[in-house]
Design a protein that fits this description.
15 strands, disordered N terminus, Rossmann fold, 3 domains, alpha/beta, six-stranded mixed beta sheet, 43% helix, 460 residues, single chain, six-stranded parallel beta sheet
């Protein structure tokens, strides 16, 4: 793997150790100091945050999206058979019915059913508290203003797959939509899985999914965006995926709504130096094992603690089942950052705007006041990010790549529309007409002005 050079190499040399594992793993994690003159430049380089635009990917996705829009199911089947090595004859071959989903749920071993149900209950309870209400207020002249909340009629959820099964993502995507009151939830997941893949189908049954298609990639996004003979057109598409899925969501935006543009998964941890180094190392592993592009960052004002965590990383890594992925992720994308104090640590974290942020400190509430950019905040030493991935309650679908500056965690509000209510009384219309007409004429829109003034002239 390519070594990412660091600043202040002599002052903060990376901890390097060769494990006694038979595969001989060697790991170097870049270390920065926030007090160095070149820190911001080096941090930006290591974050590699530029939205990935690969011309070949853009062109490939454009061809697939356009083809599905024109040829519908025929194109969907063609691309699915080609990319997923299937032999589907029609879209019906890709459909998992509600009966099949229910059968998968009933067939689960008791331990898996209990875990899935417990997670679903917690996710549902959390999102019930998110539900906004319609509201109105009345002015003295009898005019009424307000906002009406309405659920979307039909949404599509893209469940990621390929390298693993993610029943947790089904719950995190579909349950907020169900709580929001969405009329129909359609799901796609790449390729019909064997074995543990039934967990995805079971999760869909628990989460109120009406139709599930074993369909992935750009063709799945296009099918939901434009509709085909078998797959109904949706109003909004949510859920993360690979670069082709992400590019497809970008290309169909406007035809349908999307939740966000997702990139590789991220974790930033702020520590005061008092946490168990093994715990923190394992939290970094939990993020790094997603894939080689995942990013795990540790920030602390205690340089000795950073070294202790590095030692824990080297000690624990050889026993990890996905050690090669973890090694690649931490070596190419991991960062250890030394700061002068915890306030500076929060400033650096805000600059990173991470998807997940752990505050592993004595008083997390005190420093959370300084946090402005984070998808999800995990408070205290016992709130491992992994708990949020599965069963804490909030959706684990979160903004990445620094977009926590303007995107939020997926929630009930993503599946609802807000309509403004304007109900002018006679007196209210008279009061507003002059202001509206004046502003309209400033904008050279005389018909607007006259429309408002006619209410003054006509008392009926």
């Amino acid at each position: 793997m390519r070594r990412l050079p660091t600043i202040s190499e002599t002052k903060f040399a990376p901890y390097t150790q060769t494990s006694n594992d038979m595969n001989t793993l060697t790991l170097e994690i870049p270390r920065l100091s926030a007090s160095d003159a070149g820190f911001n430049t080096e941090l930006k380089r290591l974050l590699q945050r530029e939205m990935l635009v690969v011309k070949e990917v853009v062109a490939t996705v454009r061809a697939i999206v356009d083809d599905v829009r024109v040829r519908g199911d025929e194109a969907v089947i063609e691309y699915t058979n080609r990319f997923d090595k299937l032999d589907a004859k029609s879209a019906e071959d890709l459909l998992v019915s509600r009966e099949q989903m229910q059968s998968a749920l009933k067939a689960l071993p008791a331990s898996q059913l209990q875990a899935l149900t417990h997670a679903a209950d917690r996710i549902r309870r959390y999102h019930e508290n998110q539900k906004p209400s319609s509201w109105q207020y009345e002015e003295a002249d009898g005019s009424v203003y307000g906002q009406k909340i309405s659920p979307l009629e039909r949404v599509g959820i893209y469940v990621p797959g390929g390298k693993a099964n993610y029943p947790s993502s089904v719950l995190m995507l579909a349950i907020p939509a169900q709580v929001a009151g969405v009329g129909q939830i359609i799901a796609t997941v790449p390729t019909a899985y064997g074995g543990d893949g039934d967990l995805v189908f079971a999760a869909a049954a628990l989460a109120g999914v009406e139709q599930l298609f074993t369909l992935g990639g750009a063709q799945a996004i296009a099918a939901m965006a434009y509709g085909t003979e078998a797959i109904a057109k949706v109003d909004k598409i949510v859920g993360p995926g690979n670069i082709y899925v992400t590019e497809a969501k970008k290309q169909v935006f406007g035809e349908v709504g999307i939740d966000m543009v997702a990139g590789p998964s991220e974790l930033t941890i702020i520590c005061d130096g008092k946490a168990n180094p093994d715990w923190i190392a394992m939290d970094l592993f939990s993020q790094a094992e997603h894939d080689e592009q995942a990013q795990a960052i540790l920030i602390s004002p205690d340089s000795g603690f950073l070294s202790a965590v590095e030692a824990s990383v080297q000690k624990l890594l050889p026993d990890m089942e996905r050690k090669n992925i973890i090694q690649a992720s931490l070596q190419d994308r991991g960062i250890f950052i030394l700061t002068d104090d915890l306030k500076t640590a929060t400033d650096v974290s805000n600059q990173i705007a991470p998807e997940h942020l752990e505050l592993a400190v004595d008083d997390p509430a005190a420093i959370m006041a300084n946090i402005t950019n984070a998808g999800a905040i995990f408070m205290g030493r016992y709130s491992a990010e992994a708990l949020g991935d599965y069963c804490a309650g909030p959706s684990h679908v979160l903004p990445t790549s620094g977009t926590a500056r303007f995107f939020s965690a997926l929630g009930v509000y993503d599946f609802q529309k807000r309509s403004s209510i304007i109900n002018c009384s006679v007196e209210g219309a008279q009061k507003l007409a002059g202001t509206a007409a004046q502003l309209a004429r400033c904008e050279h829109l005389p018909a607007h002005a006259l429309s408002a003034e006619y209410r003054i002239k006509s008392k009926d």
